[in-house]
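Field: COMPLEX_INPUT
Field: COMPONENT_COUNT = two
Field: RESIDUE_TOTAL = 757
Field: MODE = joint
Values follow.
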Amino acid sequence: MTALGWLQAIAFFLIILAITKPLGTYMARVFEGERTWLSPLLSPVERFIYRVCGVREDDEMTWYVYALSMLAFSLIGLVYLYLLLRTQKWLPFNPAHVDDMAPDLAWNTAVSFTTNTNWQFYSGESAMSYLSQMAGLAWHNFVSAAVGIAIAVAVVRGLIRTSTKTLGNFWVDITRCSLYVLLPVCIVVGLFLVWQGMPQNFHAYQSVTSIQGFAQSITGGPMASQEVIKELGTNGGGFVNANSASPNENPTPLTNFVEMLLIFAIGAGLTYMYGKMVKDTRQGWAIFITMTLLFFAGFAIAYWAEAAGNPIVHHLGVAGGNMEGKECRFGVAGSALFATVTTDTSCGAVNAMHDSFTALGGLVPLLNMQLGEIVFGGVGSGLYGIIVFVVLTVFIAGLMVGRTPEYLGKKIERREVQFAILAVLVTPVLCLVPAAIAAVVPAGLATLNNGGPHGFSEILYAFTSTNANNGSAFAGLGPNVFYNLLTGVNMMFGRFAVAVPALALAGALAGKTAVPESSGTFSTRSPIFVALLIGVIVIVGALTFLPADSLGPIVEHLLMLQGKTF
Amino acid sequence: MIRHLGTALRVTVVSVIFFGLIYPLAMTGVAEALFPRQANGSLITVKGKVVGSAIIGQLWTKPQYFHGRPSAAGKGYDPTATGGTNFGPTSKKLIASTKSTIDALERQNSRASGPPPMDLVTSSGSGIDPDISPESAYWEVPRVANARGMSVAALNALVAKHVQGRIFGFLGEPRVNVLELNLALDNLKAP
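Field: COMPLEX_OUTPUT
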């Protein structure tokens, strides 16, 4: 590890810290329906969309209607993308003459982008037309991010409203999110990325002959416009197979830095927006501090492991950190930081191949996802994910002192805890059970790229990533019908079986009356609360996943130290 | 439910037109106007012919050129098949291929001092990494100098001129763009 490596992480964090308040303040205004400095420009567009779509702005929805609208929108988006991928051969913007996608792969991809996962069992440069990329995948990047943020906003409304049944209007929330939050950032930062060298064109692939006489095909496409929303919306689906490791998607160390900032920006801003909306910004900062501690813990381990390198390779007579699957311009520190950031959130973009990380370096992304991606988290899903943990923590604290737990003046009772437990249980059940099945059936073992414990890590990572809607991969694992179908189902439940209970929880909370804070109220903005919250997150995660992780990365680390290969 | 599906369908159509078509097309127009070179792939032209892209690595085999890193993209540096080896740290294939890379490098660079640097014996994540570390470039200098009949000192100076430092002094790692270095190398010879 070097001081410069740490400086990158610290500078990164300080910029995130600096944008948290302004971005959070702005988002609070957007979702409370107030005017912003962009309103003169965007509110005519917004009103036009409502008029064409038949949306009534003041039409408040119960949690049930909110969830139903969300599910209906996701269903239409899923079917639309599936049909687009199945017919892309005959559609315009296809200069590389890409063929239609096979049904099982198209299903997997359609689910993947609908659920904000962006798991990719295909290679973008050979399997996607430009139309599919921009009007299919990049469009999903916008709206699936907006859906996540909308759900988070609805959950927050459930906390602050009293004696009501409604949580806002789903259509208004996703429209305002896309127009006022996502689009302006995409335009400005997208052009910055082009300036740094990212292609943005509609050319056919260009054949060139190198000075030495080798033929090479230079790919193109509307990359920058997709790259920026891929990171900002914590989607993570690469335009090309190598994702942000490709110089097309990440040409310089500066784009690398900016891409990481995009990944954390909204998740961080949402913590402040949360504090602002509940009228106590210290509540938001308590969550922010919890996330910060978990972020640095993950980075420290990943950076240390990657900088230490692979002793089996060192034995061949070369020295240095682990550079297998990493790019020169980012190096070990820039790759370890990106891997941490992309799995703290549900992004899943990669700038280095996680499959080739050292055992413990690869454990960090895996654990980050298993803990529920609540370190700033997926846009929206990170906030509602951690609110679920907050409810659990408050409940456990209440049990300890024998008092009815309350949070933000709302009593946490049986129904709330049931919904919270339901949301927390989805991840382990839907991750571990399919992983166990895949580890014993021939179809699950057929497409592994590595043997020994690392092979199991590939399987475990795949189900963890799809279930957590992350989308990064130990990419050696190849697609087949078994994985296409099973991970598809897994992504579906990973998204909706958490989002719907979270909305139900919000609906239950909105119906309650507020009780005034008393001296017996457990403060949810104190350091003790932060420590307890981290404890609950880590203990729930560790108890659930440690046995499985022991069979993969942990045992592999011990074998790596002994020089064993498979 | 039918009512919600109807709204969902309309929102889908409108947002696809807006975010899926107008946004990327407008961005392309603006990008082409402001940054045409980058938007079109940072292509490099020599004597009127495009020889590659400044941001995409290429395969080099002749001793008189600097070589890039091992590549797992297609048959080597294929931008239509990007990716890494995805070998884990305890993979037999990783160790075997790294060993054969080291052996080949040491055979080709018998005048080099010490073992090859780490980046030169490991495959990049993209398979089209355009860069090598400055240490690797300097490590290759004796071979290139010998093949071209040039002095090591002159080539060291050329490499030094092509080292790109960390951005703002701390972002990323120092690196050398192999294609740009090799083009400069060819220009050195021509007066």
